[in-house]
Every structure is written in structure tokens, then in C-alpha cells.
Design brief:
Elements lengths: L16 H10 L4 H7 L20 E7 L8 E13 L5 E12 L14 E5 L8 H7 L2 E2 L13 E2 L9 E6 L20 H18 L7 E6 L2 H15 L5 E7 L13 H25 L10 H13 L6 H11 L3 H6 L6 H7 L6 E3 L7 E3 H4 L12 H4 L4 H13 L20 H5 L13 H11 L4 E7 L8 H9 L7 E6 L12 H13 L3
Parallel strand pairs: 4-7, 4-8, 8-9, 9-12, 12-13
Antiparallel strand pairs: 1-2, 2-3, 3-7, 5-6, 10-11
Helix pairs in contact: 2-4, 4-5, 5-15, 6-7
């Protein structure tokens, strides 16, 4: 199943006087840190440690044609790197973002009207914001053309640019964000460090663009389901006047005891919960492929049936093994041998074994020849990744879009793709990640989110999960948040017939995008 992925000044237009005045009033304790993060952002500024100039921001303007029933919008795309301050006052990293800002002609918009700003992060940890960028930006990359002056991107009619300005953020070490100096990545590659850096970035961006008083919505997918709540808490700590209106958590990681936790009982609870969450996805997957006892039923009915079965059991017996085997389409002997808890790879390679195929991880509806997947290193052995779903070079597409259509040139850019690569996934960051949580956060996002709802009375949270996601099986965040008593008028959990990238999914896109628009719309 192919999925086609659906722009030079170092400043943006001066904000209207009313907005600037409101922004000045909201600036708080984060001002010093944000100002330091902006140090050296002017053209030609020198990076203290690396000796390279911080790249100039690049910008390009065009008219977004709008959705089928909407008006066209004048949009400015800005690609920029914000220097990040080191403890000694120097600069040890840059954080890159691509922003899309509607530039309405004077008089077309109330000078004092607040326009939401939405910040997006993908997960990993170690992933650039390419997935959400390709899904929500008003213009997104396609196959890189043969000549640099040609356009490879396409306008995206599903973008929410008509109701908010959009900022796609690449954490340090990913995208065009750079680590400057040996060992500097340690200050950014960890649960606490990453959340702090994300909060500093948001504060710096709002200050630089004169948007401190506008409503803010934060969107995080996968690991960013941890990043976003923790960063939101740090933002409210440092900017009490921040108008935080919305969080969208897409297929979110939630934390909890890690696989190497010393507490055996906590580890057992974690393993049991993960087993059940996987079984729920297995049943949905088998039914989608026309296999098993649930085949032919709607996903909502399957979920209700399987979840009721799982909730009624503390452990599985022989009768349960037979029920599980029937639901997930594997031999009962295999299920019994695993005491009901079949490992993901065994399920992925077993379900379509008769065809010689393996099903995906990020989207279990997708499949590819098992022999082919075995020739590729993780994560690209997953049939749901770009080598299988796209018929063009995704790295070349992003490099062309950012370098040639927007005009951004990384520091020291030579024109060599290897030397100034756009890093979609940083294995260095992922492998070096410090999983130690800040003491104030515990080890789960549930109490953090509860605290945010209490601190920010206008905040609304939306959790979006997909039935066909084995990267973060949907029941994990659902049960975590339900057990904490979070669902209510300001906290919603929505399930979709989708994989990990809920909003990029054709089957779920219309409803999931409408739900996001409602969340953003509530911030206006």
C-alpha cells in the first residue's frame, strides 16, 4: 500500500501592536533562558564552540489554495535554527524548526485577535518531525525533481493552517538540528533534558516571533507523548501567563516501569499489561486480514469484545488459550506455549506465514515478503516504513524541499548530501538516551497530565490511538489514563481505524483531522 507524502530574512513581520503588548505582559521567568537560547541568531553570528556560523533563517511566501470549501491563505514558511545555550553561557547545540505563518494583509484580521500557535514533535526518541510535518503542513514534500529549481512538493488541503500557525520542531541531533561539540548531546538526550530543551525552544520561539500571549497547542506523537506533557509543565513553571489551550497526544508513550526495572512486581504488572495490549491489536489485525474468529466484524465491536475478555482475567488458562488463538489466527499450540502472550515478531511472521509475508509494526495492516524484510536493519525491516510504502527517496525529498524550495542552508553546507544531511532518525540520540525521569514527574505522564489540567483551567487534552498500532498498542495509553481517572469533559480519548501515524491514515484522516481542528478551534 503506497502512501505519497502529501519556504531569506532572519526575522518575521513585526507583530501587531496589540499582540506585542499582550506578549510583553506574558513574558516571565523563562525570558532569560529564552533570550540566551536566541543568542547569536543574527546573520553571521558565531557559534562559540564549533566555530561555524549559525545558519541564517530562510523564508518563502506563497498562496495556499485552501481546502475545497475554504478561502486561500497567504502563507510564509520559515526554516530556522535556534541556538541552545550551554551551562557555561556558550552555544552547544541548535534546534531547527519549520514554521508556517499566515500573513494576512493589513486590515484583514483584527490586530488584537489571538491566533493559536501549534507546535509539533514526532517521537523516537531521536526522530525529526517529518511524519507530522508531512501530514499537517500546508505544503509537503514529494519526490525530489531532477533540477533544484523545480518544485517537488504539493499543497495539502487538509492542513489546519487556516485556523492556526504551525511549527514543526526537530529535537537536537535530528533533522537540521545540530550538536556542537564533543559530548554535547548528553545535555539534550534524555527524558528530563529533552523536555527542558523543548520548553526552552517554545519559549524562545514565542518570544522571537512576538507570540507570547497567543494560545498555544502542543502536539506529540509516540515518544513525544512523554516529551509534550513534561515540557508543558516546565513551560507553565517558567511562564505562568502562558495561554496553554490544548495537547494532542498521538499514539503516546506514557512511561511507567521500564523493562529493566528492579521492582519485580512492577515489572510483572508492566509485562501483563503489555501482553494484553498486544493481544487487542493482534485480534484487530487478524480480522483485517480476514483471519480468525473476529473476521468480518467492525473494529469497535472487536475492541469491546476482546477488551471485556481481557479485563475479566488475571491470568490465562487452557480455555483462554483456545479463545486467544481463535481471535488472533495462530495455532493454539503456539499460543499455549507462550501462555497467551505471543511475542510481536512471532505474531507478525506467523499470521500471514502461508503467503510468506510479515505484517508491519507501525501499521499491522501492511505486509511485505518476510525474506525481503530480513535483508533490512531495524527499523526498516518494518513493512510500514518508507522503503516499502514510498516509491521515491524520502531523504532526498526532504533535503530538496528544505534546501531548494524554502532555501535553508545548514551550517557548513557544501552541497554534498552526506555532509549536510537532514537526519530523519538519529540512532546516536536514540542509543544514548537517558531514561531517568525528573523527580517531580514520577515515571508516568498520567499524574503530569492531571497536574496540567488543574493548573491550566482552559486546557483540553485529546489522545488519539489506532487499532492497528504495535509500536504503542492502543490499550496501553487508554488503560493508563483511564486508571488515573483522567477522561472527562476536558480529556478525551479517541480510537481510530489506523496505525501509529493516526492522522496520516487514509481511513482515519477525515475524523482525526476534524478532531484536531476542534481542539485548535477551541483555542481561538
Amino acid at each position: 500500500m503506497s502512501r505519497a507524502l502529501r519556504s531569506a530574512a532572519a526575522h518575521v513581520p513585526t507583530p501587531p501592536p496589540a499582540r506585542a503588548a499582550r506578549g510583553a505582559a506574558a513574558l516571565s521567568a523563562f525570558a532569560a533562558a529564552a533570550a540566551l537560547a536566541l543568542a547569536g541568531l543574527s546573520a553571521g553570528a558565531t557559534v562559540a564552540r564549533a566555530g561555524d556560523a549559525v545558519p541564517d533563517a530562510a523564508r518563502v511566501a506563497w498562496t495556499w489554495p485552501g481546502a475545497a470549501d475554504g478561502a486561500a491563505q497567504a502563507v510564509t514558511a520559515i526554516a530556522e535554527a535556534l541556538p541552545m545555550a550551554a551551562a557555561d553561557g556558550g552555544i552547544d547545540a541548535t534546534m531547527f524548526s519549520t514554521s508556517y505563518i499566515v500573513t494576512a494583509p493589513a486590515g484583514d484580521r483584527d490586530a488584537g485577535a489571538a491566533r493559536p500557535v501549534v507546535f509539533f514533535w514526532n517521537g523516537g526518541p531521536g526522530s525529526a518531525a517529518v511524519g507530522l510535518h508531512a501530514t499537517f503542513a500546508p505544503r509537503t514534500p514529494g519526490a525530489a525533481p531532477d533540477r533544484s529549481e523545480l518544485r517537488g512538493s504539493a499543497d495539502n488541503p487538509d492542513s489546519p493552517i487556516d485556523i492556526a500557525d504551525l511549527v514543526f520542531v526537530d529535537p537536537v541531533g535530528t533533522g537540521y538540528s545540530r550538536v556542537l561539540g564533543e559530548g554535547a548531546g548528553a545535555a539534550y538526550w534524555g527524558v528530563a533534558q529533552d523536555a527542558e530543551a523543548a520548553a526552552r525552544f517554545v519559549a524562545a520561539w514565542l518570544r522571537r516571533h512576538g507570540r507570547e500571549a497567543d494560545p498555544v497547542v502542543l502536539v506529540g506523537q509516540s515518544y513525544a507523548g512523554i516529551r509534550v506533557p513534561l515540557a508543558a509543565q516546565r513551560l507553565l513553571d517558567a511562564m505562568p501567563g502562558l495561554d496553554l489551550r490544548g495537547l494532542l497526544l498521538v499514539a503516546p508513550s506514557t512511561g511507567g516501569p521500564r523493562a529493566d526495572a528492579a521492582d519485580a512486581r512492577a515489572q510483572a504488572r508492566r509485562d501483563g499489561a503489555r501482553c494484553e495490549a498486544r493481544l487487542a491489536v493482534y485480534a484487530q489485525t487478524a480480522a483485517f486480514h480476514g483471519i480468525g474468529a473476529q473476521a468480518g466484524r467492525e473494529p469497535e465491536a472487536i475492541a469491546a469484545d476482546v477488551e471485556a475478555f481481557l479485563a475479566a482475567r488475571e491470568r490465562f488458562d487452557a480455555g483462554d488459550h483456545a479463545r486467544i488463538a481463535a481471535d488472533i489466527g495462530l495455532p493454539v499450540e503456539q499460543v499455549a506455549g507462550a501462555d497467551g502472550c505471543v511475542e510481536p515478531l512471532a505474531f507478525q511472521t506467523g499470521l500471514l506465514a502461508a503467503r510468506g509475508d510479515r505484517v508491519g509494526t507501525a501499521d499491522t495492516r501492511l505486509h511485505a515478503p518476510l525474506a525481503l524484510t530480513r535483508t533490512r536493519q531495524p527499523p526498516y525491516d518494518d513493512p510500514a516504513t518508507s522503503p516499502y510504502t514510498l516509491d521515491y527517496d524520502l531523504d532526498a525529498a526532504w533535503r530538496h524541499y528544505l534546501r531548494h524550495e524554502i532555501g535553508y542552508r545548514p551550517a557548513g553546507a557544501s552541497g554534498d548530501a552526506g555532509e549536510d544531511a537532514y537526519v530523519r532518525l538519529s540512532l546516536a540520540a536514540h542509543g544514548a538516551w537517558d531514561w531517568t525521569w525528573p523527580r517531580w514527574a514520577g515515571a508516568s505522564t498520567a499524574p503530569v497530565l492531571a497536574g496540567l489540567l488543574e493548573r491550566a483551567p482552559r486546557l483540553r487534552v485529546l489522545v488519539a490511538v489506532g487499532y492497528y498500532d504495535l509500536s504503542v498498542p492502543y490499550l496501553e495509553p487508554v488503560r493508563t489514563f483511564e486508571a488515573a481517572g483522567l477522561p472527562g469533559p476536558r480529556f478525551a480519548i479517541e480510537r481510530y481505524p489506523a496505525g501509529h501515524a493516526v492522522h496520516a491514515d487514509g481511513d482515519a484522516r477525515a475524523r482525526s483531522s476534524a478532531d484536531l481542528r476542534a481542539l485548535i478551534g477551541g483555542a481561538r
